[in-house]
């Protein structure tokens, strides 16, 4: 293997210098050799994303538990938890770069997404049971939520096909790999869509009348998540 290829596949660990930004350069969070994968959850701007998502979950959970719990309470609790787990799935994988790190990272990423998707499905079942005979998909939140659910299903299908069944369904492993960058791009777009759906949830009658979760607070938390995650995107992994 030539030294050029080696540098490309194994970028040297970035050493911190005094004149470097505190959270590192954009896309600079790289998992070091022999460093545990759990470190990826807090390296570089992951701290900003973690602050945002935990604030968001705290806003939803504190509003729910400060009122009487009803069957429907599970919908916001499960959906906000699902997004929390998805953010962890993204943060885990972003800094991986060696084949070994990528393999482990992808397994953890898949496991976390499987968990979060179970929570998403359960949340949908809860809201649909709660709706009973009431009209469905009438509010902007409900419509955005439905679009989000459809996108989640498509994202999962593409992810599973490209990684687990590329040869059987796409014809070759190489073809599967050409899709990776689109899966990454749509994954980031999906995260923004999920956050927008939660922002829209603050405008539902139930929230305005009972929960009182503030839109501005959810917006600030969402912006922190987007900034923290976006700053760790490695343009090379998106094909740029
Ligand atoms: C990414 C996260 C979320 C998704 C994908 C989502 C999805 C949905 C969907 C699809 C519906 C419509 C069901 C129907 O009309 O048959 C709905 C309803 C509802 N959701 Fe969410 N939801 C999310 C998070 C939240 C959160 C955090 C809250 C907390 C405030 C919330 C509160 C509500 C309320 C009050 C309704 C009933 C009113 C309505 O239909 O507009 N949701 N959600």
Structural features, described:
This protein has helices spanning 3-9, 46-65, 74-93, 99-131, 140-164, 166-170, 173-201, 205-211, 215-230. The protein has 240 residues and is mostly helical. It has a single domain (43-238), classed as Four Helix Bundle (Hemerythrin (Met), subunit A) (Up-down Bundle). Helix 3 (74-93) runs antiparallel to helix 4 (99-131). The protein is globular. Residues 1-16 have low confidence and may be disordered. Residues 60, 75-76, 79-80, 83, 127-128, 131, 136-137, 139, 141-142, 145-146, 148-149, 194, 197-198, 201, 204, 206-207, 211, 213 line the site of protoporphyrin IX containing FE (HEM).
As residue ranges, the low-confidence spans are 1-16
**CATH architecture call:** Up-down Bundle
Unique bound compounds = protoporphyrin IX containing FE
* Average pLDDT metric: 90
Identify the CATH class: Mainly Alpha
Percent of residues in helices comes to: 55-70%
From the alpha carbons, calculate the radius of gyration and give it in angstroms: 19 Å
Q: Roughly how many Å apart are the termini?
A: 24 Å
Number of H/I helices: 9
SS strand fraction: under 5%
Major sheet? none
Q: What is the succession of H and E elements?
A: HHHHHHHHH
Query: How does the overall form come out from the CA principal axes?
Result: globular
